[in-house]
Amino acid sequence: MNDKKLVEEAPVKLLYFEEHVTCRNYIVHVETGFKILRFSSESERLQEDIAKKNYLLFFLEGEFQVTNNQYERTFKSGEMILIPRSSFLKIIPSSEAQLLCLFFDQPISNCDKLLLQTLSKRAKDMEYNFTSLPIICPLDKYLELLVLCLNSGLSCVHFHETMQRELFLLLCGFYTKEQISMLFFPIIGKKLNFKDFVTENSSKVHHVSELLALSNMGKSQFYNKFKEEFGIPAKQWMLQQLNNRIFGMLTDPEICIKDMVADLGFSSQAQFTVYCKKHFGYTPKQLIDTFQGENKLFG
After folding, report:
1. Homologous superfamily of 17-183 in CATH?
2. Superkingdom, according to UniProt (predicted)?
3. Are 122 and 178 in contact (CB under 8 A)?
């Protein structure tokens, strides 16, 4: 294995590219699946106060200073770590660095879900210290193929699901149960807590009332718990998430107002226009035109 660079990138042409990217199952913005993150300088750091998913990070090139809650460690090419959902994360790379991230809520396969649950007994006797696992053969070969496919533009939802299943097969086949227990220690046997519940389901609903109904909690209990966990009222937090989704959609060159209205749960374009003018001071068309151009309305 090359100590400096785990995966060598080779140019590969994806056949029938237009047919691939216009498929309804093509993923433009990866929320669950694999994504390559490249850094060209230390200033290109990454920080999330609340991680939206569980992140399995594979360090492919360079060194990284990683802070996860109370832990601060330095990792290098050829290592992998897990960042649990809802935790604090900051990554400061070396000047030239690259990593691969798997964003996931839980394993796809029921067998893999059961495995992590059964390993919880083994984890009880372990002392977790946010250490990495080495990327060994054949996992390094798997990552090489995965990176090659992603670089070619292959990003079908079925591809991401298939590769995630294969990843867990390789982990179970070539790593000991002790190693797997240590890697997944932060999430092994963990029941869904309130903050995890909100983070996982907020993108599936459009109103706080829908989230309340899913929680099976009393109204007062829900709102009090929400304020305790997130520090702000539920309605204010949901508005922040909605605005973040709007910003994210505005960067999509194929986006149109009609799709935004449908995806975001607005009853009409008129209602969406009123919302945008109230919260951003601009109409949806002005926002799209500006975000697609060189000038940005927001820093």
Report:
1. Regulatory protein AraC (2.60.120.280)
2. Bacteria
3. yes
